[in-house]
Structure formats: C-alpha cells, structure tokens
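TASK: fixed-backbone design
INPUT:
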C-alpha cells in the first residue's frame, strides 16, 4: 500500500474524531486556510498535499467535498450506533486479549492458535473499531494490503493488527490532536563535523523540512533527502570525510521520522543531529590516527 493512501485514511479518521464532537452542520460551513490548519489539525505537509483532495475552494473559503462529507456522515453514524455498547465491550475485549496472551505467550503468531481466538471475538470487532476510531501510524497501515474500514474482519484477522487495536483501546485516553513535528520544521540547527582534510570541524546549518533536510554550507543552500542523500552526503564526500554511508543514512532517516512523529522540540532535534555529527567526527578522527603514514 502506498504511504499516501495510508495517510489519507488517517486524515479522514482524525477529521471524524473532531466531527463526532460537533453538530451535523460543522462540515457544511466554509473554512479558511487557517481554520483548516488550526481546527482540523492539518499539518504543513497536509495543507500542501491533501487540502485540495478533501476541499474545494469557493470565493475565499474551502468546503469539504460532497463525497468526503458523505463518507464522514456514514462513519459518524457507525460510531454513534455503537456508543452505548462500546465501553462494556472494550473492557471485556481487553481482558480476553490479555488472557489469550498469558495462555499462549510465544504461540500468538501461530495461525491456528490465533484463528481460534479470533473466531470467538470477531463479532465484537465492529463495536471495538468504530467505538474507538483508531489512528495507526502511516507506516503500520502500509504493511497491510487493505484499509481497516474497507474490511474490518479481514484487516484484524492478524495478530499484529489486533494487537495494535488492543494497544489503541488501552491507551486511547492519552491521544490528542497534534501538529506533531511541525514544531521543529524550518529551523536552522548546527551540524559540526570534523574534517581530516582541513584539520578542524566544519559547521553545516541544517533545517528539517516536510520533505527532508535543507543544508547550508559555504553560503550555498541545497536540499537533501530524509536519509541525507543529496547536499549533506555530497558535501561530506567532497571533503573526503570518512563515514559508514549506510549507517549514516539510516541514522538520518530515523531521526527525521522521530522528529516528525512526535512533538520533538527543535532543541532536542538539534542535540540529536549533533550526536550524529559527533559520531561521524569520532570515526573520521580515528581513521586519521590509524591511517598508514605511507598512504
């Protein structure tokens, strides 16, 4: 499944979670760009890539497209219809699932063992899902071949998927709408890395963007991918800085995702970015000290 499909699904669920707290005319009114951002929690990337998917502009306001409004109304009805039974059903499900885990331990991934358990609880899936309106990570949804709402029984007939639902229900009171990593976007951070070629540390200025990184060095500002490919890696290679490229790319993409998925402050992001620079510097210095003098 493409990541954009998973993200589109999550945006719909998040809008639905807001909608169920509002009256039926909420999505019939027009929204300004600022209201889409602040009231519906569309992040900077969402405003750029998904606003026009869901909304059409009339005069100076944006209106939810009729097809999407019909879907949200249908889903809102499903949520409201299970509201009275959800609390009792979810409490029983948590106990059943925990007992299943205790009894089977390492056998939870055994399809026969899990199928027997699932048969006993599958009639509850509709209530559990529509009652809790789970928001899963885009990357998690991409691991499956279907969106939950397209076929609940098919989606949750898998231990990992049902375990995700269990964790969501158990922790859902801690979920709140958020702009997540928008708080650390487009802020200059230092990336000070040692260069044997010049015998000192060079300082790059790096910003996290909605697509990757923006790198400024020697007066030039260029783009890099989430894993550092492009400007960052090219600059270090140009100065013959030695680094394990695959490990470095993994570290940069991991950090980008960490910063995107939670409200990481720009200070924490800057510290972690410098942690990577210090790691590369230590490798670069060690290589220099141990390099044969005849090379």
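OUTPUT:
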């Amino acid at each position: 499944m493409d990541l954009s499909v998973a993200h589109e699904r999550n945006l719909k669920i998040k809008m639905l979670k807001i909608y169920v707290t509002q009256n039926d005319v909420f999505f019939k009114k027009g929204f300004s760009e600022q209201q889409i951002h602040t009231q519906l929690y569309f992040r900077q990337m969402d405003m750029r890539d998904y606003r026009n998917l869901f909304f059409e502009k009339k005069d100076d306001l944006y209106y939810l497209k009729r097809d999407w409004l019909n879907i949200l109304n249908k889903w809102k009805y499903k949520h409201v219809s299970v509201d009275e039974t959800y609390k009792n059903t979810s409490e029983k499900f948590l106990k059943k699932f925990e007992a299943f885990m205790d009894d089977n331990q390492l056998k939870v991934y055994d399809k026969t063992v899990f199928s027997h358990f699932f048969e006993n609880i599958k009639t509850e899936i509709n209530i559990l899902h529509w009652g809790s309106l789970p928001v899963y990570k885009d990357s998690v949804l991409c691991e499956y071949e279907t969106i939950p709402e397209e076929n609940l029984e098919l989606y949750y007939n898998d231990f990992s998927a049902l375990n995700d639902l269990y964790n969501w229900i158990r922790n859902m009171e801690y979920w709140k709408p958020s702009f997540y990593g928008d708080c650390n976007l487009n802020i200059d951070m230092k990336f000070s890395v040692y260069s044997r070629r010049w015998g000192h540390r060079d300082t790059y200025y790096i910003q996290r963007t909605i697509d990757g990184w923006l790198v400024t060095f020697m007066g030039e500002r260029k783009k890099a991918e989430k894993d550092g490919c492009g400007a960052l890696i090219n600059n270090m290679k140009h100065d013959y800085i030695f680094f394990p490229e695959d490990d470095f790319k993994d570290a940069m993409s991991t950090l980008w995702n960490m910063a995107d998925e939670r409200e990481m402050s720009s200070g924490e992001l800057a510290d972690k970015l410098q942690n990577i620079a210090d790691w590369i510097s230590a490798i670069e210095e060690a290589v220099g000290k141990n390099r044969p003098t005849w090379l």
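COMMENT: The mean pLDDT is 94.
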